[in-house]
Amino acid sequence: MLSYKTGNRVGKGTYWDLSNGQRIDVEQEAILSGDASATYYRMPASMMLLAGPVIGLLYVICLPFIGIATLATLATGTVVSGVLSLIGKSLSFGWRPREAYLSGKKKSKKEPK
Predict the structure, then answer these.
(1) What digits encode the pLDDT tens for the residues 25-57?
(2) Domain coverage including residue 7
């Protein structure tokens, strides 16, 4: 399996760009076209068909780890938001945005002793 960049002259065969799944069939010699950063791999279609089950097996093996990572991310996010909420409540300084206090706060009358 050899790799070729865009603009290379290649012989007869099938060339795959694995980043976007594009396939180019070359009947005779041709120059590969596409993005400047595209890399093509020459491999027969049968090899790509055999790679499918292997990729599926890797996915099935990694799936439990993906689930654990998702749960860890959700738990961490919940803990962090709870801590930030607690910090926000403890740092409150008594100002309420809905109340204007244009004439000052109401003062409680002290009863004479």
Answers:
(1) 888 888 887 777 888 888 877 887 888 899 999
(2) 1-43
The reply to whether 97 falls in a domain is: no
Indicate if 16 and 35 belong to the same structural domain: yes
Task: Please give the distance of CA 107 from its chain centroid, rounded to a whole number.
Answer: 55
Go through the chain and tell me how many residues it has.
113
* Number of domains into which the chain is organized: 2
CA pair distance 93, 110, nearest whole angstrom? 24
Contact call for residues 16 and 47 (beta carbons, < 8 A): no
Helix, strand, coil proportions of the chain in percent (round to 5)? 40, 20, 40
